[in-house]
Amino acid sequence: MPGLITYPPFPEDLPSAPLLVIDYALLSDGDEGEKERLWKAATELGFWYLKNHGCENEVNDMFDVGTEIMRLPQEEKSNFEQGTDGSMAGYKSPGANTIDDKGTRDVHEYINITKDDILAWPDVVHGSYPEPVNVHMDSAIRPFAQKAIEVNITILNVLNEKSALPDGTLAKLHRPEMHNQDVVKFINVKPSSLHAFEDSPYVLPHSDYGSLTFLHNRIGGLQIQMPGAENWLYVKPIPGHAICNIGDVLVIMTAGLLRSNIHRVVPPPGEQNKYERQSLVYFTRPEDDVILRPLVDSPVIAAAVSKNPEKDWDKGVTAQDWVSRRTKARKAVNYEVRMYHALQ
Ligand SMILES: O=C(O)CCC(=O)C(=O)O
Ligand SMILES: [Fe+2]
């Protein structure tokens, strides 16, 4: 079973980021102290570990499913290549995206299985997927997505309360039954593709553009900058702990009360660099037609808007356009088209 790989330990001498550990079991019991700690983590750093999230078995199963998909012959995976029109659904082969303004190609592969396809399956909303997705939909993929949604809604409800929004405001913008750009993403990179990078990032510094990220890492590589610091610190993977972070959408909606922190990915440290690096993510995003702007029904958010009138929080775009623009801009073919037009 691929899920049973024992990796060498994360090197002890490497400094790692001091993320708060939030206990999901306490959060879902409504523990006031834990809700306050989540608010602190979400506003001061924007990253935290989440333990007791109840998805441990589903996460293990998803690592097996992801590994099975990545082991398919390249031609088979390429039949399901993510389009270049900004659509989320499908497989992305190494080199299909650019990572910078110079047109440097990326080296990792991933598959995005959309929440809309998962909940509608066997009906198709956005696209179809390699056969292991169909085979493991009932046993692994849908159970993982459903639990991830539940966790993220619980977190959204705490953030809702702490930012003084009317009850259920954030949950109403993220209803699972409505179409949105949520995905289950499985990312894979081979050690041979990373040799040239040494300690430099193969996923460049970025903040996530959705609402919430629910990430599962087995080996190191993810790094963040602490607020105000220039240096990068590893986020050490802890067994059974998810890594959660705030995305840009929640920063806009709260006019900056919440923080979406910059992060990047470098090759796995120490002996871990001999192994494929795999990550499993559930990205939560608002419903497609939600317009991105501060939720001024909260007096605290309204005050944050008036305090910084020069900040243009009102993006005037829907959540769907916000996400698809970014997905499209990263495609290498679109980069080449842009360069071609720039030269004419
Ligand atoms: O692979 C990881 O640990 C993080 C990936 C990431 O930052 C992303 O997909 O946005
Ligand atoms: Fe990210």
Poorly predicted runs: none
Please give the alpha-carbon distance between the first and last residues. 54 Å
- CATH C-level class: Mainly Beta
- How much of the sequence lies in strands comes to 15-25%
> What name does the CATH topology carry?
Jelly Rolls
Over all CA atoms, what is the radius of gyration?
20 Å
Structural class based on helices, strands and sheet pairing: alpha+beta
SSE string, helices as H and strands as E: EHHEHHEEHHHHEHEEEEEHEEHHH
Percent helix among the residues? Answer: 25-40%
Total individual domains: 1
Q: Architecture, CATH level 2?
A: Sandwich
Numbering strands along the chain, what is their spatial order in the largest sheet? 1-2-10-7-12-5-4-3
Principal-axis shape equals globular
Main sheet characteristics: 8 strands, mixed
Discrete helix count: 13
Number of strand segments: 12
**Average predicted confidence as pLDDT:** 94
Determine the CATH superfamily.
B-lactam Antibiotic, Isopenicillin N Synthase, Chain
Which ligands does the model contain, each kind named once?
2-oxoglutaric acid, fe (ii) ion
Domain Fe2OG dioxygenase: 180-286
Region (Disordered): 79-99
Pfam families: 2OG-FeII_Oxy (PF03171), DIOX_N (PF14226)
Protein name: Fe2OG dioxygenase domain-containing protein
